[in-house]
Amino acid sequence: MLFPLPSRSRLAHRFFRRLPGVILIAGLAAGSPALQADPADLPGAKIYQNLCVDCHGKHGEGVPDKYDEPLQGNRSVESLAKRIARTMPDDNVGACVGDDSKQVAQYIYEAFYSPAAQARIHPPEVDFARLTVEQYRASVADLVGNFRQGQGPAIGNDRGLKAHYSGFLVQKPDPAEAQLTQEEKDKKKKDRPRVNFDRTDSQVSFSFGETSPAPDKEMADQEFSIRWDGSLIAEETGTYEIIVQTENGVRISLNDSKNLLIDAGITEGKMREEKKSIFLLGGRAYPITIEFSKYKEKTSSIALKWKPPHGVEELIPRRNLTPQRLKQTMVVSTAFPPDDRSVGYERGTTISKEWDEATTDAAISVAENVSANLVDLAGVKLDAPDRVEKLKDFCHRFMETAFRRPLSDSYRQVVEKQFAAAKTPEIAVTRVVLFTLKSPRFLYPEFPEDRATDDYDAAARLALALWDSLPDKRLLEAAAAGKLRTREEIVAQANRMLPDPRTRAKLDGFFHHWLEFERADSVAKDSKAFPEFDAEVMSDLRTSLELFVDQVVWSEHSDYRELLQADYLLLNQRLAKLYGKEGGGDDFQKISFDPKERAGVITHPFLLAAFSYAKNTSPIHRGVFLTRNIVGMKLKPPPMAVAFEDAKFDPSLTMREKVTELTKNKNCMGCHSTINPLGFTLENYDAIGRWRTIDNRKPVDPVTDLSTDDGETLHLTGARDLAKFAAESPNGHRAFIHNLFHHAVKQAVGAYGPDELEDLRQSFVRSGFNIQKLLVEIATVASSRGLVPAESKTAQAALVPISNAVATTATSTP
Q1: Three-state DSSP class for residue 241
Q2: Angle in degrees, 0-180, between the axes of helices 666-680 and 77-87, rounded to the nearest 10
Q3: Hey, is 292 helix, strand or coil?
Q4: How would DSSP label each residue in 344-356?
Q5: Per residue in 34-51, pLDDT tens?
Q6: CA-based end-to-end distance of the chain
Q7: Pick from 671, 672, 637: which is nearest to 658 by CA?
Q8: pLDDT tens digits, 215-243
Q9: Omega before 43 cis (within 30°)?
């Protein structure tokens, strides 16, 4: 490591992790209602010890190989009692019913099950964390981009690329040319009048054959050139393969005008294909230039394609091209070890030798890029008389931007020392960049300091929550002016930041996680059963779902319920034909269905295909996804994994009958009493998500009864009933909010207070289930943690001992 984390920070780390719990306990003692009597005195305690402790543990913590999931959740006491009476104990169902089930449910709820009990037993903590890989890449991109000249990160609504066409005017035969010398002929040819015109092309896909691009403008077909300019919009982070097919000359630059991505200017007039790969960050637009020329070739054509991450080779769609030429982005393509996802979401709580080496390699690549572009980034010419002072100022601003706050005198001295020691000012700049990117102040956004939480902390948290990145200029200006102290001020900034493409990219990542997009990576369907279904169809379905989610989320109402209940799909012509509809085109269009046949993401063919087998549906896979992600009910791990082997069943059975037979054991039904009914509601959809009414020559039966967490029995007649239940379910709302909070903040929602999840849910309901407003609310909660209004002198004074304690711990010698 170039600049290792000080050893004393390990103590600060431990103190910082304990701090939220200390504050929580103090808050409970000062202003919360008195805790109830010891749960151990409840009559259900003895029943729990006799019947439950062997499987669930003394404190409901779980027992390996029996029931290793902790007993905690959102069920009511009544619901717990009904579930216990119906399914527990696993090996003796019926041994705990009536008053016994009610009493043990009351004990479980008070002792460790409820959110309040969990907050009492395990005071939640805000983890001291580094930047995640996504946050690191986005922060570096915006750090360097902050100093680039040109247009900002906003992407307009126009699509396509600007095109400049240039060629010679068609000349009529001139008999007098025969009398000219070769020199005179060459001069006349050089001086021929030209035809030039500009337009916007939606895609780069042309086959001119033996004609010119504009015979109507009398452009000659012998020699002409076209230059396309604009930006390419990458929707997802990953490696993109850029492909060009042509028999002519072509040069392409992408995100770096000084270096060509594809250099194929020399041609033999034969059709060829050139490919190059490039790593891009999602939610950003990259400047692109394509220079195409025909000289002596008989014919001319060009097709610009790509293969995006998780996609197939295709023409770059119009929606991914903009005539705006945005500024270059610093893309860190260094391979990082994956972030920890053991708790269900990515977080930067692990440090390894591999991670440290990756941050060093990334810092070196950034330093090299800054050095190569120093004239542009620092805005100072090589021969400027005040060059050194201006480079020092650049370093101050670079470090200040990376650290998300004004520099202290000690950090300004770091810059001065580097310039004093280095042989050249360029070397000094390189050292400052390396120091900055390896500093804990950059890598750990909330590195403990001897001060109370302030506006700059709020700005840093807000930028991470919405953009995974650094505060922009306006956010830092608000912090400097002390205008991030109140909830209203933070909300105003969050609303300003919301339409930014970086927010959209972050929300895209959330929906990929919530809807488990990665499951589709290994999808393969039986070619005999589904001959029309191939990789291109799966790629189209992925695009269809992404566009649907994007359309709902960024509409005026941004209604979560529409995600679950929409009776339409976005389809192109290929998908429309496959799913029994007329219409569609080259692009995706909204196509309505019979309301009983479609219910938002629940019945989107992409997910239905992903949660199915190669030939058949899978009510179990579909049911597990619906249970955990859509209706927000918990499942314990199965006592043993049982593979579904279709060949072992009576061939006359439907899939529902096979699953019922497979899971009829009482040990299975503890979870399958929830999984199966939810999965059965989707049996009207085959393994690629097409509507059906017959399965194995028998009528499909999607009707089922579901026991809810509230202890009620819900009669479901199919997907529409399920969608209505999920859209109205408080547990479904909590599951959605829980996942979105984790994705945005990278912290457990419980660390912000035992009631925070429910407060967010109630706010979500009041907003009309507006997803945009929910994200703003989550970002506001995260940004305002520990923030003390300037006028609150008493509260500010109360924080001094805590702040001093952090400082004392951080500076102690181990």
Answers
A1: strand
A2: 120
A3: strand
A4: SS-B-----HHHH
A5: 345 688 889 999 999 999
A6: 20
A7: 672
A8: 999 898 889 999 999 999 999 999 999 99
A9: no
- Cα(240)–Cα(336) distance, integer angstroms: 18
Domain ranges in the chain are 35-121, 133-147+335-497, 161-322, 507-728, 732-783
633 in Cβ contact with 642 (< 8 Å): no
Beta strands 300-307 and 314-315 are antiparallel
Quote the CA–CA distance of 459 and 464 in Å, as a whole number. 9
Round to whole Å and give the CA distance between 417 and 402: 19
Mean pLDDT, rounded, of the chain: 87
- In angstroms, how far apart are the furthest CA atoms of the chain? 118
Is 336:348 a contact under the CB 8 Å cutoff?
A: no
CA atoms within 13 A on the CB side of 7: 3
Distance between CA atoms of 46 and 148, rounded to whole angstroms?
69
Distance CA 411, CA 794 (A): 32
- Assigned token pair, 732: 């479904």
Which tokens sit at 758?
Answer: 């429910």
Is 727 in contact with 719 (CB distance < 8 Å)? no
The residue behind tokens 């295709």 is 314
Cα three-residue angle 361-363-364, rounded to 5 degrees: 65
Identify the bridge partners of residue 706 per DSSP, sorted by sequence position.
714
Q: Which residues pair with 115 in a beta bridge?
A: none
Burial class, 170, CB count within 10 angstroms (exposed 0-12 / middle 13-18 / buried 19+): middle
Residue bearing tokens 């000690």: 410
Length of the chain as a residue count: 814
| Chain segment 295-316, per-residue pLDDT in tens | 989 999 999 999 999 999 999 9
d(CA 489, CA 565) in angstroms, rounded, equals 35
> Token pair of 18, please?
């304990």
Tokens of 630: 């859509």
Query: pTM value?
Result: 0.86
Residue whose token pair is 């979401």: 345
Q: Which of 375, 373, 364, 380 is nearest to 433 (CA)?
A: 364
CATH superfamily of 35-121: Cytochrome c-like domain (1.10.760.10)
Closest alpha carbon to 714 in 689, 731, 691, 737: 731
Residue type, 465: A
- Confidence at 669, pLDDT banded by 50, 70, 90: confident
Q: How far apart are alpha carbons 607 and 630 in whole angstroms?
A: 13
The Cα 276–Cα 589 span in angstroms is: 31
Secondary structure letter of residue 112 according to DSSP: I
State the amino acid at position 129 in one-letter form.
Answer: A
Please report where in the chains the tokens 């029943």 appear, as a residue: 47
Q: How far apart are CA 98 and CA 85, in angstroms?
A: 7
Mean pLDDT of 718-725: 97
Q: Which two tokens stand for residue 269?
A: 């007039």
Q: Are 264 and 228 in contact (CB under 8 A)?
A: no
Q: What one-letter code names the amino acid at 307? A: K
What is the pLDDT at residue 647? 80
CA 645 to chain centre: 35
CB 249, CB 255: distance < 8 Å: no
pLDDT at 809 over 60: no
CA 641, 647, 650, 653 dihedral sign is positive
Q: Give the DSSP letter of residue 612.
A: B
Token pair listed for 237: 């982070």
Q: What is the pLDDT of residue 633?
A: 87
3-state helix, strand, coil in the chain (%, to 5): 45, 15, 40
Distance CA 508, CA 712 (A): 35
Q: Please, what is the angle between helix 133-145 and helix 353-372, to 10°?
A: 10
**Neighbour count for residue 105 (Cβ, 10 Å):** 26
Contact 104, 52 (CB under 8 A): yes
Q: How far out from the chain centre does Cα 587 lie?
A: 24
DSSP assignment string, 17-43: HHHHHHHHHHHHHHHSPPPPSPGGGST
User: What class is the 161-322 domain?
Assistant: mainly beta
